[in-house]
Amino acid sequence: MGDNSCPATCAPVPVLSGPAVNVRVMRLLHTSDWHIGRSLHGADLLGDQERVLTGLAELIQAEAVDVVLVAGDIYDRAIPPAAAIAVLDSVLTTLRATGAQLVITPGNHDSATRLAYAAGLLASNGVHIRTRVERLAEPVLLDDDDGTVGIYGIPYLEPDLAKHALGDPGARGHTDVLRIALDQIRSDRDRRGLSRAVVLAHAFVAGGARGESERDISVGGVEVVPAAVFSGFDYVALGHLHRPQEIAPGIAYSGSPLAYSFSEADHVKSVRVVDLDADGLAGVAIHELDRPRGLVTLTGTLDDLTAEPSYDRHVDAYVSAQLLDAVRPVDAMRRLRARFPYCVHLDWVPILDQRDDDRSYVQRIVGRSDLDIATDFVQHVRATPATKDETRLLARALSAAGVAHEAGQS
Fold this sequence. Notes:
Elements: E1 26-31, E2 39-40, E3 43-44, H1 46-54, H2 56-62, E4 67-71, H3 82-96, E5 101-105, H4 112-115, H5 119-123, E6 127-129, E7 140-144, E8 147-153, H6 159-165, H7 173-192, E9 196-202, E10 204-205, E11 224-225, E12 235-239, E13 245-248, E14 251-253, E15 270-277, E16 280-288, E17 295-300, H8 302-307, E18 318-323, H9 332-339, E19 343-348, H10 361-365, H11 370-382, H12 388-409
Helix pairs in contact: 1-3, 6-7, 11-12
């Protein structure tokens, strides 16, 4: 990490790491769900991710942020590719060079063990990666003019695994394991006499609006935890849901820094800058993030999409195309990418599509001949009826198949 210097506005390293540097308030930047290594319908997003995440350094410096909280899903996979690891190294190096410290917890996409590599060494340089369930009640301690703030990082708790590490094999579901974890944290906070405490957690909290790009973390159909389990803390930095949203005062999701599905095209991506004073939560400011490339869904015939002048403004966006052509166009993606280089997704949804028929498959075929079913299939796939020549060809094929079947049974 190189430079271990700390400007006057920087919060100190934990008690184990050296002397405190006093500041007027404690300022936190809350982010989560980086998903480094994720793609968008096969499009590589690493460049966009590195640009947005390293770009946080400018905000950190401008706002004199003392500590960055990253609430899980650092990587998109438990075993990230080498290129994703290189991006995380670049991001952490850049953010730490601002003088801000970082507190990081794994999410359900991460491997806690792999993310924890060199955690001890990194902690001595102000990057605190909190991955061990049995040690979640050990805070990062930071001082300001008003005393000490305890920051508790809860790694993602898989109930069947976490309940043993938490010492309660009878725990069931996400709510139980989180309640046990938070009770342990409260006990530690009381033992230390901390007047202010912050928690990072990766969970689906009741009242949150989910999208299409979050992985299901349900266990036995019960995944939602009540916000009340987090009561008594000055700020709860949540991760998992990709839409920025406040669940209750002082309990919020920062959301992901980039859109990871077309359902997020209208999300305003942001981070939260949180101030703590002597009494606890003093204020929250939302800072919108630049989007390297927009997302848009365009609907129309292939000719319309490739020729309509009003679509010129989308040539640099990630495009999902919905084609309304009655007949499936040939080489549609090539033609689309000639105009929209970042077209990453294509659906054919013809106006004459029969897929809105709400009858069951059995209801649609009962009493019908094999030839009728075959010609209906042609129309379903192609959205135009089979021609007379095609119908005759299908009849001959069905007749030949019937003769072959009878011969096989004799």
